[in-house]
Design a protein that fits this description.
The structure is a single chain. This protein is an alpha/beta fold and 405 residues long. It is built from 18 helices and 13 strands. The strands form 2 sheets. The chain has a 7-stranded parallel beta sheet with strand order 3-2-1-4-5-6-7, sandwiched between helices. The protein has a 6-stranded parallel beta sheet with strand order 10-9-8-11-12-13, with helices on both faces.
């Protein structure tokens, strides 16, 4: 059997990149390859059944066993090391990676001739290349980056990373890889501005353990509750929601509640949770805002199914799988008017409400919590019917077949 190597820098948390890589591994198996999962650290493959409903335990793993969780960003720089080791050990025919820092891999590709697929979540050059200043997406301008890396000491952490990046970042992916994929039309258009070519858009699938609901609980039987979901990290802007949105929302809907679910497997995540707890206490929101780290999928689904709205606060989100998950549960969504979540999932207002300010977010949320007619008009699975894992496998299979034509 032919081997396919799937390389990601850090598998041990339930994020969008991990979902894409797990889905790629599953797809390779379905089309006749044996997947080999590579990582810079050891990871718990058994958690993927719980996180996403995808069983990775039957696949071979090759981990470099580094223990640098505090330097997770830097692990991207060495993600190609275990990939190269796995290629040599198993004679891999195809490599799939969602890292752009695979410059060392290109030399090995010339030697052995394997096919290389890059899945692009975001073109890194936009963040670090001076040519892209004043686009609103470079370092110092993009809230997605600045929320996490804009202040001391994280700004130094970012600066050192950027200094090392040229030694590992491939140049034009269309000259380095045999196939370039991306998550959304928004990212694809941005990539075209950077590289002159447009990647093929392959939307991440909804995890199989997030069923598409056909018969949702009616509006009248639901709580006046708002749900957020995503790892506990600053760019998710939970702190902004707690300090800017919830106090104003409670003036409009006094009995509103906010449930925040997220992964908390790193020290940085735990520190952020502690900060959020202090903000909740200072704002006297203990009975209105609930932080729920590392919850099982069943609890997340149950809470979505009894709530009336979903809020996504990240600015310039490249895709936003959690937004698609909410739509699958028939939960109307409110997203920032930026990035792929707005352009590709909400389709600029067709499948969700948008906002730019806290006041606008509050207005849309309060309407969904209290207006049954508006709620019913946005409680729809129409957008996500094509985002199943089976649909992902079919599209992925058609792309891989081109290698054999």
């Amino acid at each position: 059997m032919a081997f396919a190597v799937i390389g990601h820098h850090y598998w041990d948390r339930p994020g969008g990149g991990q979902l894409v890589c797990a889905s790629a591994a599953y797809s390779f198996e379905k089309i006749g390859y044996e997947p080999i999962l590579t990582s810079t650290t050891n990871f718990r493959a058994e958690k993927y059944s719980e996180w996403f409903g995808i069983d990775l335990t039957k696949y071979k793993k090759y981990s470099w066993n580094m223990n640098l969780k505090m330097f997770g960003l830097y692990l991207r720089l060495v993600a190609s090391r275990p990939i190269i080791k796995a290629i040599k050990k198993y004679n891999g025919e195809i490599v799939f990676t969602d890292e752009s820092t695979y410059k060392p891999l290109i030399k090995e590709k010339r030697k052995t001739g394997f096919k290389l697929i890059e899945y692009m979540h975001f073109p890194y050059e936009v963040s670090v290349d001076p040519r892209f200043k004043n686009t609103g997406l470079s370092y110092g301008e993009d809230p997605y980056i600045m929320e996490r890396y804009g202040k001391f000491p994280m700004n130094l952490y970012w600066k050192v990373y950027v200094g090392l990046l040229p030694y590992f970042l491939r140049k034009n992916p269309f000259q380095s890889a045999d196939l370039v994929l991306t998550n959304s039309n928004w990212t694809a258009e941005l990539a075209k501005q950077v590289y002159g070519e447009r990647p093929y858009v392959l939307n991440p699938p909804i995890p199989p353990n997030v069923e598409i609901v056909n018969n949702p609980k009616p509006f009248e039987e639901r709580e006046k509750a708002l749900v957020m979901l995503g790892r506990f990290s600053e760019e998710k802007r939970y702190h902004w929601v707690i300090t800017e949105v919830m106090p104003k929302l409670l003036k409009e809907v006094p009995d509103a509640r906010l449930y925040i679910f997220g992964g908390a497997g790193t020290r940085t995540s735990k520190m952020y949770i502690d900060r959020l707890k202090n903000l909740i206490s200072n704002a006297k929101l203990e009975g209105s805002v609930f932080l729920i780290p590392d919850a099982p999928r069943s609890q997340i689904n149950e809470t979505m199914d009894k709530s009336r709205a979903f809020l996504h606060a990240t600015i310039n989100e490249h895709w936003g799988i959690v937004v698609a998950e909410a739509l699958a549960r028939r939960l109307p969504v409110v997203v920032h008017r930026s990035g792929g979540a707005w352009s590709d999932i909400a389709e600029e207002g067709k499948y969700g409400l948008g906002y730019e300010s806290a006041d606008e977010a509050v207005e849309n949320i309060s309407k969904l919590l209290t207006d049954s007619r508006l709620w019913n008009s946005f409680s729809s699975t129409e957008r996500v019917k094509e985002l199943t894992l089976d649909a992902f496998v079919q599209k992925f299979s058609n792309l891989i077949k081109k290698f054999h034509d």
